[in-house]
C-alpha cells in the first residue's frame, strides 16, 4: 500500500514538475490528488477539535455555522480596530492578515471620496456625496457614475450588510443574507426587498445629461433583480427609443423576467423569442447565461417547453457555447415535470448523462448546483439504478463533487441516492455504500433509516438490526418513536437462531434504557410488547416481567398473545408463582381474556391449593355467562 | 486455453441440439486463442493445435463428420471477404470483446471437472480446433496464411512494428482462393522472413514450416469429408454469422447463461443500444435558427477588456457561495491558504517575497567602488575611509542597492559640508 502511495505520489510530482509553466499551487495540487477520501473520518473542517465532531445533521449545521461565525467575528474585530493590529510579523508581508479599511477616510467633497464610498459599498453615503458634488457644480466622470448606478441598483438603494458588521438593522437584512447563504437565490427571495418607485437610482439616472447603454444596463438589471419586471421592459423600450443598443446583460435580465410579464405560455415564449431576435439584430452575442435564462424561462412555458428547450440546446451548441449543468438541469425539469406522473422513460436523462460522462465541470451558473440532485430525483422516480450509478460516478470525476452544492443540497442528493439503493440494490451493496457515505457525507433522516430497514427486511438480513440500532442512536434518531417501533417490530416479527435472539434482546434492552432516559416520549403498546417478546425469546424472564410492570405505569395494555407467550415461558421454567402473578396482572388490566389465561394456568401448572383458589376465582369471574 | 476448449466438449455431451451451443462457445474460445497468441507468442498456440492434430489422427472416423463442416465454412468465407477485411482492422476491438467473453466463459469453465475424453468429446475438440482456424482465416482470408500470421504475432511479441504485419497480410491474401495441398512458396517466404527477425533463425523457420504443414494436413483431411452430419452444418452456419458478432454476442451469451442475472444484463445492453439510437433523435435536433454562428464576432464584447463591474463581482460571489468550497484534506486547505497568500509557496524558495530584489544583479551589490568616482577625493584618508565603507556595504546582505547608494551619498554630502575643515587639516585633496 505504501508502495502504491509512493508510486502515485511520484507520478503526481512528475506531472507537476514536467509542466514548464506551473502554477503556485501545482505541488500542493499534486499532493492533494494522492489523498483519497476516508469514509471513516469526519469532514476535514471538524478534525481540529474532537469535541466538535458532528454526529447528526443538526450538529453539523451548528458546528459549521459557529466556525464560520467565529471567523466573521474575528474579522470584524480586526477590521474595526485597525489601531490594535499594526504589527506586521510576516516576512514577506501577507496582505490578507492585515485589517481592511472598512471606514471612510476621505471627508472632503470630491470625486475621490465618492469613489471610496462606492468601493466600500456605502450606498447612502455615496448618494449623499454625489448630490453634494452636483450642488457644488462639479461634474462627475461617466465611469464613476456608472459604478455608482451599479451600486445603487445592485442593492436597490439600501445599504448592504457589510461583512462581519453586527446586524443592528432590521431582521430583514439578516434574513436575506441567511437565505442567500442557505440556497441559491431566487427572485422571490427579494420580493420584500423590492425596487422602490423613484428611488435614488432613477433620480440620478433622470438627472444625467446623457445616458449610455451602461446606465440603462444598470437600471434594467437592478429592476429585474428586485422584481420590477414591467418597469424593466418599459426602460428597455425607452432605451430603444433613444437609439441605443442593449448589451448582453440587459437581454439576460429581460429574458429571465419574461415569464413574469406575460400570462399565457405562448405569449411568454413569443416574448423570449422576440428578445433573442432583437439580440441578433443588435449584433449582441449571447452567452451561456442568456441561454440558461431562456431555458429557465421555458420551465414556465408549459406545453411549449419540450420542443423549444431542445431547440435552444441545439442553438447553444451551434454557437459553440458549451451548456453548463444548469442548462441540463432546466431541460430535465422541463421533461420530467412532476414526480407523481409515472414517467418511466429515462431516455433523455440517459442521453444527457452519456453526453456528460467523464467530464469535469466548473461552476458557471449558480443553478449548476441543482443538477445532480434533480437528476438523482428522476432516477429515484423511475427506479433506474444503473443511471443512478452513472450519476454518482460523474460526481466522483475530478472536483465535480463541489457542484453538489452546500451541505443541504448535498444531503438531498445523497438522500435520494441512498433511497434508490435501498429500493433496488442487493443488501450487501447497500451496506457497502452505507459504510461509505454515512455519516461522512450524509446524515440520513428517519425516512432514510426506514428505507434501510425495509431493505434489510427484503433481503432477510435482520440479524444486522442491532448494529443499525447503534447507528440510529448515534444519528440521534432514537427519539423518533415511529422509527424505533418499526425496528422493534422487525426484530420481534419472527423467531431467529438463539445467538441472534440474544443480540436482539440486548438491543431491546438498550432501546428500553434509551426510552427510560427520555420520559417525554410516548411509548406505544406495540413497541412495549415487542420488547417484552424479544426478552422472552431470549429467556430474560426477569426483565420481561419488569417490562410488564412498565405497561401499567405507561397506561398501556398488553395483548393476549403476549401474555400467552409469557405463560408458556413460565411453564417451561416451571415457575408457577410467576404464572399466577401473570394472571393476576392480566386481571388488573381488566383484559376480557383473563379467564382463558387462568384456565390454561390451571390446566398446565402444578399449583398449590392457595394458587388454585386464586386462579379458579379469576377464571369464573371473567368467564362469559353463556 | 485448454480449459476453454475442453469446456466446449462438455456442453454438448448430452444432446445433439446443443451442438449449436458448443459452437458459440467455440467462437468464444477462438478469440481467446487470438489473444493468447498475442500475449505469449506462438508457443502455446502451436502446442495446442498440434495436440489437436494428434487427436485427429487418433480418431479419424470422427473427423469425417467434421470435414463437411469445414467445407460449408469455406463457402461462407468466400461469401464474405468484405466483412473480413473490416475484421482485420479492429484487432483492438476484438481484444476488448475477448475480455468480456472470458468473463462470461468462466462459469461454464468452472463446471468442467475433468478432461476425460470420450470419442464424442474428441470430435468436439476438433470442432474447437476448427474454430480456431476459422477465426484466423477470417483475419487472413486464407487458411494457410494462418501460420504466417502466427509468426507475425510472434514477431510482434518480440517488439516489432505493425507495418510488417500488414505487408504479411497482403502477401498472404494474394493466394486467397487457392486451397492448395502443398505449401505455397510465398507463404514459405513469409515464414522465413518472419523467422529471420528472430534470434534463433533456422529453428524458428523450421518450426513455422512444420506448423504450416500440419495444418495443411488437417485441412486436406477435413476437405474429403462428406455432408451427413446435420448438426454440424447448423453449427457451422451459426458461426458463419459471426462477423456481426458485436451485436450478436450479448444475446447469444445470455441465452446460454445459467445465471438468472443474465437477463438484466441483456436488458441493460439493449437499453444502452436503444439509447444510442435515440440520441440522434433527441439531443441532436433542430435549432432555433435565430443566431448565425460566429458570423458577427466583430463589434461585440467591448466590455471584456474593461475592469470587472460590481455586477461581475456579485456574480462571482454567488458562484462561490453556491458551490461547496470546503477543503477535504490538509493539502487542499494549504492550497486555499496559498491562494490567500498566507502560506509559503511550494516549492519552498528562500527568496520568496524578494521578487523586486531579484531583478537587481549581484554585482550591483558587490562592486560599489564606482559610486566613489564622483564627489570623493582620489586619495587620502577620506578616500581610505570610504573604501572601507564600501567594503563593509558590499558584504551586507540586508540592505538593498538603493539603500547602499543612499548610504554612500550621505557620506558624500557630509564630506562636502565639511570640506573647509578638511582642507584646513590638509586631508581633503583635490
From TrEMBL, chain A:
Family: Belongs to the mitochondrion-specific ribosomal protein mS39 family.
Subcellular location: Mitochondrion
PPR repeats: 212-246, 287-323
GO BP annotations listed: mitochondrial translation; regulation of translation
NCBIfam families: PPR (TIGR00756)
Pfam families xrefs: PPR_3 (PF13812), Rib_mS39_PPR (PF22330)
Location, primary (coarse class): mitochondrion
A GO cellular component annotation in the UniProt record: mitochondrion
Top-level taxon of origin: Eukaryota
Keywords, comma-separated and alphabetical: Mitochondrion, Repeat, Ribonucleoprotein, Ribosomal protein, RNA-binding, rRNA-binding, Transit peptide, Translation regulation
Alphabetized PANTHER family for the sequence: PENTATRICOPEPTIDE REPEAT DOMAIN-CONTAINING PROTEIN 3, SMALL RIBOSOMAL SUBUNIT PROTEIN MS39
Name the UniProt record assigns to this protein: Small ribosomal subunit protein mS39
Organism: Haplochromis burtoni (Burton's mouthbrooder)
Mitochondrion among keywords: yes
A molecular function (GO) term: ribosomal small subunit binding
UniProtKB/TrEMBL annotation, chain B:
Lineage: superkingdom: Eukaryota
Residue stretches of biased makeup (Polar residues): 92-110
Region of interest: Disordered: 80-118
GO molecular function: structural constituent of ribosome
Pfam family, one: MRP-S31
Keyword Transcription included in the entry's annotation: no
Family: Belongs to the mitochondrion-specific ribosomal protein mS31 family.
Name of the protein in its database record: Small ribosomal subunit protein mS31
Lineage, highest ranks first: Eukaryota, Metazoa, Chordata, Craniata, Vertebrata
